[in-house]
Specification:
The complex is a heterodimer of chains A (174) and B (288).
Chain A: E1 5-11, E2 14-20, H1 26-33, E3 52-55, E4 58-61, E5 74-76, H2 89-96, H3 106-119, H4 125-131, H5 143-156, H6 166-173
Parallel strand pairs in A: 1-5
Antiparallel strand pairs in A: 1-2, 3-4, 3-5
Helix pairs in contact in A: 2-5
Chain B: E1 7-9, H1 14-24, E2 28-31, H2 37-42, E3 50-53, E4 63-66, E5 69-73, H3 78-83, H4 85-90, H5 92-99, H6 104-109, H7 112-118, H8 125-131, E6 135-140, E7 143-148, E8 153-155, E9 158-159, E10 166-173, E11 180-186, E12 196-205, E13 208-217, E14 224-225, H9 227-233, H10 240-252, H11 264-285
Parallel strand pairs in B: 1-3, 2-3
Antiparallel strand pairs in B: 4-5, 5-10, 6-7, 6-10, 8-9, 11-12, 12-13, 13-14
């Protein structure tokens, strides 16, 4: 057992201090110490992206980051996306466009898409697929995730949006 | 998933990092982006007693032009390579190559220096570096030495990087205007290492090949420079017959490992095909 160290970061705007072994992975700290259990673990080879969080304005797979490396970092997880009970445009988009089923990849998808839209507010379909390639999904086949990101992008650009989902469109109309 | 315990060090300067490396010797590993090292530690293929994190060394980051060279700090991330306007303008092969490495999250962390120092034949930068005639600055307590990329890679996970040395910078001669280039990479899916890939840089004079480099990824113990294929093209027009002959010569030096990406024959054939494609694309981009 190696010596534990204190690590301080801002998690969704809240100053947070944790005491960890150097070998502790950020995903475990977030889930087990900070009780932010939205980010998930889907693999141990850094492929799936279910653990994606935003670290200092960059999407990172928190399974491949030591918590000690996040000292003084600014972290955003899916729990920090909604503001005052209002869903973020991406959360709304994923709901309206049916961009999730089991929901296990969704927190990682949302935080990755959040950073993507900061960097490219008007991505093409091809760009969305390329820049979301670090996130695997077993349920959706990605098609509706692309639509969800496009929905959110339009919304964030201040454009009027309508869901492309026929049943959801009917629900929204009432 | 769970690495063995280790001591963590976060030096604030290069000299401090070198001192820590000397102090802890073989039991220490340098932590750069951590996207090769941590995965190996999580599977307990690597069990270092000390990690020396280079993440706080701003002096190892950045891309700049110095005379006729592009100088890239070893801790510069793949994402920074992709978005560098200097590289987009003066060394687009590196941007094209970086875009084919892994995925966005990994590219925010993984560094060019780490990709090179790892010495994995599956990595793309070793090939790109040889194709671009790069050299590497290695720092130790005795000062700096500069070694060319061509010859740096000794075997799988083995390079000329010695004990107590840290790669600090990558130096690339600015490719001459009119240089054609391509990195043709065959992979099973986005984010995978190459089944086979070929990097080409090409210059023409009077319709004939005046300068060419052909380097192969993941079809040997290291990135392989196809010198015979290069020689066969010099002074000749790059027609289909010449391209075929170069591909045949490139295939003749392949010694790929058989794995889930394919057997020896398949990977060798694909190295030939990637060579043909890279040469054709480089030709369309080359001006005299």
């Amino acid at each position: 057992m190696s010596k534990k160290v204190m690590v301080s970061f801002r998690l969704n705007g809240t100053q947070t201090d944790v005491v960890v072994e150097p070998r502790e992975l950020l995903i475990h700290t977030l889930r087990e110490k900070c009780l932010h259990t939205g980010p998930h673990i889907g693999c141990e080879t850094s492929h799936c992206g279910a653990c994606t969080v935003d670290v200092n304005g960059m999407s990172a797979k928190s399974c491949t980051l030591l918590t000690v490396q996040a000292d003084e970092a600014e972290l955003l997880t899916v729990e920090g996306l909604a503001k005052g009970g209002e869903l973020h445009a991406l959360q709304e988009g994923f709901m309206q466009e049916h961009g999730l089923q089991c929901g296990f990849c969704t927190p990682g998808m949302l935080t990755r898409a959040y950073r993507l839209l900061q960097e490219n507010p008007n991505p093409s379909e091809e760009e969305i697929r390329y820049w979301m390639a670090g996130n695997l999904c077993r349920c959706t086949g990605y098609q509706n995730i692309v639509k969800a990101v496009q929905y959110a992008a339009a919304r964030l650009r201040g454009e009027a949006v309508e869901t492309s989902h026929p049943l959801m469109a009917e629900v929204s109309a009432h | 998933m769970i690495p063995r315990p280790f001591e963590y060090h976060a030096p604030r300067s290069l000299s401090e990092a070198i001192a820590l490396l000397n102090e802890h010797g073989d039991t220490a590993k340098l932590l750069a982006g951590g996207h090769s090292l941590l995965p190996m530690m999580k599977l307990r293929f690597a069990e270092p007693g000390h990690l020396i994190d280079l993440g706080k060394l701003a002096e190892l980051k950045g891309i700049r032009e110095a005379g006729n060279e592009i100088r890239i700090g070893a801790m510069t991330t793949e994402n920074e390579l992709i978005w560098s306007t200097l590289l987009q303008k003066k060394c687009p092969l590196l941007v094209e190559g970086a875009r084919q490495i892994s995925d966005p999250q990994v590219r925010y962390r993984g560094t060019i220096g780490g990709d090179i120092s790892h010495g994995d034949p599956g990595n793309d930068h070793p090939t790109l570096m040889i194709a671009l005639d790069a050299s590497f600055v290695l720092a130790s307590e005795h000062g700096e030495r500069v070694v060319p990329a061509d010859g740096f890679f000794l075997g799988t996970y083995m390079t000329q990087l010695g004990a107590g040395e840290i790669m600090t910078e990558i130096r690339i001669p600015v490719p001459a205007p009119g240089t054609g280039y391509c990195y043709a990479k065959l992979k099973r899916k986005t984010g995978d290492f190459a089944t086979a890939a070929t990097a080409v840089t090409l210059r023409l004079q009077g319709g004939k090949v005046s300068d060419v480099r052909i380097v192969l990824t993941n079809v040997g113990q290291t990135a392989l420079r196809a010198s015979g294929a290069e020689q066969s093209l010099l002074g000749k027009p790059l027609d289909e017959a010449a391209i075929d002959e170069a591909a045949r010569l490139a295939m003749s030096i392949c010694e790929p490992a058989e794995d889930l990406r394919g057997d020896i024959e398949y990977k060798t054939a694909m190295a030939g095909e990637m060579t043909r494609r890279a040469l054709r694309t480089a030709l369309t981009g080359a001006t005299q």
